[in-house]
From TrEMBL:
Protein name as catalogued: D-alanyl-D-alanine carboxypeptidase-like core domain-containing protein
One Pfam family of this chain: VanY
Signal sequence bounds: 1-23
SUPFAM superfamilies: Hedgehog/DD-peptidase
Keyword Protein biosynthesis: no
Biased amino acid composition, Polar residues: 65-84
Organism in which the protein naturally occurs: Paenibacillus motobuensis
Domain D-alanyl-D-alanine carboxypeptidase-like core: 134-262
Tagged with keyword RNA-binding: no
Amino acid sequence: MNTKVKTLTTVSALLLAMALVTACGDTNKTASGGNQPAVNNAGANNQGNAAPGDSEADNSKNKGDQGNTSTDHSGADNTGSSEEGTGPDMAAASDVNSVAVLVNKEFALPDDYNPSDLVYPNVRFTFKEKIEKRMMRSEAAKALENLFDGAEKDGIYLAGVSAYRSHKTQTALFNRYVERDGEEKAKTYSAVPGHSEHETGLAIDVSGSDGKCAAEDCFGDTKEADWLANHASEYGFIIRYPEGKDSITGYKYEPWHIRYVGVDIASEIADRGITLEEYYGSIPVTANP
Ligand SMILES: [Zn+2]
């Protein structure tokens, strides 16, 4: 009955059904197509209401373009390291204090993790309140300011939609989804607490300044998304969940979700058209608690 996934193989469809969750889980995405508004979660008010509910988690809109494989990274000046020569710093992958920490469906942050250097980046957001989801770790915040400035010089006006999300907030969100839909179903559209990259303070969902298509698939067709795909790495950010990498990242294409990793790593990832997972290669799943 579902003709819109007919371009997917059975295996892919299964993978989508089983593996894909919504990385930016505050978007009130529902696998059931329901549209109940997110209610306020205690302690961290209104973290869940920025993005409109977006489409169901199928990924049928393939454009066949990774978007960033030919990224010009003129800003990739050296800061002393040489990734190609020495390989990735594997310790950074599991170091929660590193801006290159790897957080995904396998690797979680510790339950008690709270970034110590959160600040409010001085950039436009789609909302006015000075609340948790406006915050990022200081190095990422500074880089984000530079990125927004660079975009504006090219006539691209970006806005932040949702950045940091505390473990407490993610837990409240997830628990609410579990209550509503059951744990198995909740996992298909919301990140399990500890596994959301938003908890690092290094990731942010962005949109155009008009807020249209915020955290929705249609953002991929905007000039803002195009600019990000081509320039984010110059400022140390990567498109964390590129198109066609679902089976590696565990997430469908999210052109709006950018992650700070530093210019060196971002440039290498963009140049090679890879993901953060591929950058680190195979990592034992038992590395983190
Ligand atoms: Zn996100």
